[in-house]
């Protein structure tokens, strides 16, 4: 009797409907439109080993800008093999004094690995508790999904790190740019941030906001 039960169990485990197949990957067809469910899959017959390798993070980003920092993404639109895998990455380059200002990723948790120099990083919990730490080469830090966080190079040498997300679409909202780089009426910004008119106008002037 036991022999019969074992045979039936093995048969059920290894048998499957004739049309059932395992899809190992879905390399994005970037010529097709993106959809809420992701990109359509590239024809598997046209997929090569090159599709699973991306070299776009090898070169440093241009840090000659207002924040003295650069973010180089490796999202699905750059690295098509990430489609459907729930992953993405980016490279951060920060010149001395460079900063990735307070921002959130509403769609993903983030883990950061420092590969050169030092960074001061931190996040603020929903209870308004700050968690700040100085990192050196080889250190990693995690930033929970949706919480405001930052990266700052407060040293005299270039800093480099790589960040990884558990989503192909982590999303991004920079707090300073959300407040001062748009056409939201200055009076509303003043009332909702408790900043005076001169400060709001100055920051809008720096970041390109109007109204």
UniProtKB/TrEMBL annotation:
Residues passing through the membrane, by range: none
Gene Ontology molecular function: manganese ion binding
Residue intervals of the Cupin type-1 domain: 55-201
Pfam families linked to this entry: Cupin_1
Primary location group: secreted
Disulfide bond entries: 26-41
UniProt binding sites for oxalate: 105, 110
Keyword Signal included in the entry's annotation: yes
Keywords carried by this UniProt record: Apoplast, Disulfide bond, Glycoprotein, Manganese, Metal-binding, Receptor, Secreted, Signal
PROSITE patterns on file: GERMIN (PS00725)
Any GO CC annotation of this UniProt entry: apoplast
Statement: the UniProt record of this protein carries the keyword Cell inner membrane: no
Alphabetical list of CDD domains matching this protein: cupin_OxOx
InterPro entries cross-referenced by the UniProt entry: Cupin_1 (IPR006045), Germin (IPR001929), Germin_Mn-BS (IPR019780), RmlC-like_jellyroll (IPR014710), RmlC_Cupin_sf (IPR011051)
Cellular compartments annotated: Secreted, Extracellular space, Apoplast
Binding site for Mn(2+): 103, 105, 110, 149
Residues making up the signal peptide according to the UniProt record: 1-20
Family to which the UniProt record says this protein belongs: Belongs to the germin family.
Name of protein: Germin-like protein
The species this protein was found in: Morus notabilis
Phylogenetic lineage: Eukaryota, Viridiplantae, Streptophyta, Embryophyta, Tracheophyta
């Amino acid at each position: 009797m036991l022999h019969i039960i074992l045979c039936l169990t093995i048969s059920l485990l290894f048998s499957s409907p004739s049309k059932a197949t395992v899809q190992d990957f879905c390399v994005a067809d970037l010529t097709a439109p993106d959809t809420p469910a992701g990109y359509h899959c590239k024809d598997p017959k046209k997929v090569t080993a090159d599709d699973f390798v991306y070299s776009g993070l090898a070169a440093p980003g241009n840090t000659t800008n207002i924040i003295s920092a650069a973010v180089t993404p490796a999202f699905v639109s750059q690295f098509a093999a990430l489609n459907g895998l729930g992953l993405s990455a980016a490279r951060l380059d920060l010149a001395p004094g460079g900063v990735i200002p307070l921002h959130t990723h509403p769609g993903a948790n983030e883990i950061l690995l420092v590969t050169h120099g030092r960074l001061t990083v931190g996040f603020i919990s929903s209870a308004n508790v700050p968690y700040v730490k100085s990192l050196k080469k080889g250190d990693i830090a995690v930033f929970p999904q949706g919480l405001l966080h930052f990266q700052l190079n407060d040293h005299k040498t270039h800093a480099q790190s790589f960040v990884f997300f558990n989503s192909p679409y982590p999303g991004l909202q920079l707090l300073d740019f959300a407040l001062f780089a748009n056409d939201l009426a200055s009076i509303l910004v003043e009332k909702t941030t408790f900043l005076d008119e001169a400060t709001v106008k100055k920051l809008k002037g720096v970041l390109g906001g109007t109204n």
